[in-house]
Amino acid sequence: MKHQKQFKTNLITLSLLSLFSSFHSFADQAQEIINEDAIEEVVATGTRLKGSASAVIDERKNQAFVADIMGSEQISRTGDSDAASALRRVTGLSLVNDKFIYVRGLGERYSSVRLNGAVVPSPDLTRNVIPLDIFPSSIIESLAVQKAYSPNMPAAFGGGDVNIRTKSIPNDTLFKVEIGASYKDTNDEGYTYNGGSDDWLGKDDGTRALPGSVKTALNTYINGLSDISYRNIRDVESKRQGADIGQAAAIDLNKSLAKALPRDFGLEKESLNPDAGIKAVYGDRFDNLFGLDGSFGFLASVAYENEWSNAEKFSAVLSSVDASESSCSQDDFTCYSATEKEVSTKHNIKLNSSLNLGYKIGGHDLTATYMMLRDSEDEASVALYQEPSKSLSIDAGQLQRSHLTSFEERELEILQLRGMHNLDWGFLEGVGVDWQYTDSTATTSIPGELKVTVRDEYLDGKYQRTFYNGSLGGNPYLYRFVELEDDVENWGVNVNKVFYFDNAEVEIAGGGYFVEKTRDYRTDFFNYRFNQTQSLDLAQSEEEALSIGSFFANDAVVDSTDVELLFQEPTADDYLAAQMIDAYYGSFDVTFAQDWRLSGGVRYEDFRQVALAFSRSAFDPALLADKLSADAIEQASVMEDEYFTSLSMTYSQQSYQVRFGYGNTVVRPDLRELSPVQFQDPLTGYRTLGNPFLESSYLDNFDARIEFYMDNGDNYSVGAFYKDIDKPIEALLTESDGRFTLQFDNAETAYVYGIEAEWLTELHSDLLGGAFFTSGNITLSDSEVEIAEEQRGDLTNLKRRMTGHSKYVANLQLNYDSHDGMHQASVIYNVFGDRILAAGVNNFDDAYEQPLNSLDMVYSYYPTFNTTLTLKVKNMLGQNFEVEQNDVLIRSQETPRELSVSFSYEF
Question: Which one Pfam family would you cite for this protein (predicted)?
Answer without folding.
Answer: Plug
